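We append the chain.
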Amino acid sequence: MECPSCARDLDHCHGTLVLHVDALVECTEPDCTDTDLVRHSLTVRCEEVDGGCVCTADYVVEYAQAS
């Protein structure tokens, strides 16, 4: 089976884009250098990642301190 985007020679990434609370964006594909949302068909918020994310805990602490 061939990726339809590969077959049409479209600029895309097979990795999953992780969107962090602190606005950082990273891709699970080690060779990905362009983390533009348009290039990724799979996205996930960092708090949905198995085991959670450090930035989510940091955000909760900062929010609690600001209140």
In short: The chain has one domain: 4-66. The helical segments are 4-7, 54-66.
